[in-house]
Predict the structure of Oxidoreductase TDA3.
Amino acid sequence: MAVTSPSSPLSALTLFLRPNRNHRTLSNVVITAASIRCFSSPSQQMDDQRQPETTKRVVVCGGGVIGVCTAYFLAKKGAAVTLVEKSCVACAASGKAGGFLALDWCDGGAVGPLARASFNLHRALSEELNGPESYGYRPLTTLSVTITESRSSSPSGDSTIPSWVDRPARGPRTIGSTQTTAQVHPQLFTTTLLNTAVEKYGVDVVIGKLEEVRVEEGRVGSVVLEGGRVIESDSVILALGPWTGKFEMLASMFRVYGLKVHSIVLEPKEPGAITPHALFLSYHLQGGKAMDPEVFPRPTGEVYLCGMSAEEEVPDDPEQIVGNPESIQMLKRVASNVSSHLAEGEARVKAEQACFLPCTDDGVPVIGELPGVKGCYVATGHSCWGILNGPATGAAVAELVLDGRASIVDLSRFSPARFVGRRKVKV
Ligand SMILES: Cc1cc2nc3c(=O)[nH]c(=O)nc-3n(C[C@H](O)[C@H](O)[C@H](O)COP(=O)(O)OP(=O)(O)OC[C@H]3O[C@@H](n4cnc5c(N)ncnc54)[C@H](O)[C@@H]3O)c2cc1C
């Protein structure tokens, strides 16, 4: 998201991301894959379980933040939910994002009301699920800062700039307060929510790849997984993130493409020196090129940096997504020009990674029932704000599926019906 126009945390299609966007150890609350019930072999199928006549059977496909939030709210409202994930829960952008949340940065656009509702829902969820302990939820102050690479290493002396930002930094501006900006650890948030959904509301998790949604007389009947397993369902939610474009039924109707973005996670030797300030940088390389990386200290003591985007083909397997070495190197260079605490030798590199933003052609998420396919819903295209907008998206879809309309937010602006006539739906 741009410092000047803070409308999205990762709005830039430039070399770097634009700014649009601890240590208590959380290791004792990390949720492991083993604690989530996964059914990967046909012999372990739960399909035969008889549900009461009135209980709606819903299959949610995609174990990113959007699918997990949707499964959580559906199950909480009483649906019998099966979540299907082809690789691992939160293995893609939902596990590797910054986790930055903003109340009002999307105001004025289509996403504004969704973002406001979701920011508030994050706060409520944090109270319900002990967010500060479970997944590093905390309000924080957010600054935009200009950094120009130079030989001089003296700090700016400006008292608005946190003391750990001890390289030359200029023009600090407070662009978010503890009332309007916050953060979560995205992977812990997603897994905490799913674990609660499994343990408290009976969600079943199936590791398997969705291959087909079976439609009979214009209505969803079942989904078919790779290998032939069939799961009967009354409704299906497709939350496939940037893989939406690889699922023919949806790709024939609208385009969702992936924008690859890089990130690193550093563990400074002195985590106590890093204060809770998110930084949206206007970063000027020697030679004049400007970039917009983002820096998010976490209550885990880690410091997360992201930037360096490129439109690239999304590989089938999320595990095959790796960062380009030059982009990772550039992020390390940025880190050392922000703070001596983040320079080589002063911080351990915990992760070097990349993942894909799910982007639509009109920049607006696609949320709603597919025209002509009763019971089949889509929730995707959240671009750089999926962690923020996951909860309200999930709650709204749950209402749409079970009550026929969403009250938490008006979903009409997000309807896939807006693409009708542009591409033909294949069922
Ligand atoms: C570097 C970076 C930083 C970001 N920072 C922020 C931030 O600070 N704040 C914010 O709000 N947002 C941020 N975002 C955006 C956010 O991460 C995404 O919008 C969000 O994670 C998208 O969630 P998703 O569930 O739609 O997709 P994903 O997380 O990509 O999940 C999709 C899932 O579907 C599964 N899947 C795909 N196809 C199939 C199939 N056929 N069968 C079964 N499963 C399938 C995949 O394996 C995957 O697990 C950031 C993104 C990036 C890349």
Observations:
- The radius of gyration is 21 Å.
- Confidence is low (pLDDT under 50) at residues 1-50.
